Amino acid sequence: IVLLHALLYIALLPSFNLCLDPEWASYKLGIFICLNCSGIHRNLPEVSRVKSIHLDFWENDLVEFMKTHGNLWAKAKYEAKVPPFYYIPHSKDCLVLKEQWIRAKYEREEFVATSTAIKHPWLPCLGVGCRTVKVQCR
Ligand SMILES: [Zn+2]
């Protein structure tokens, strides 16, 4: 129970500002995702492993991993080199588009940062600025 609360607390931090209520998480990528995306991530066991926030057991080290990674971190790493006019699917787009995006992003790592030093965007809230950052769970 304590672990569950810790995880939800992490998911609701401003720096995890999500497009949707997170119900699922990829504990291999350290991101929180919605039901639709969890279905896609489930098909990519090489790069992503999915657990339910509410229903699955979360070991302490996995909770720590989630705390030190997260959606902003993944965005900084896996979307570092997205071309300026590349179409990133929105919540209402179909699953096929989302799957193509997720595969390009995590499986083929097409946009990944080449620098080994990824600036960690996981910062405490310092004001209104961080709340304006919208991170998509995809
Ligand atoms: Zn999603």
TrEMBL record:
One of its GO terms (biological process) is heart development. Residues 21-119 form the Arf-GAP domain. One of its GO terms (molecular function) is GTPase activator activity. InterPro entries: Arf-GAP_dual-PH_domain, ARFGAP/RecO, ArfGAP_dom, ArfGAP_dom_sf. Residues 1-19 form the signal peptide. This is ArfGAP with dual PH domains 2. Gene3D superfamilies: Arf GTPase activating protein. It comes from the Eukaryota. The gene is ADAP2. Keywords: Metal-binding, Signal, Zinc, Zinc-finger.
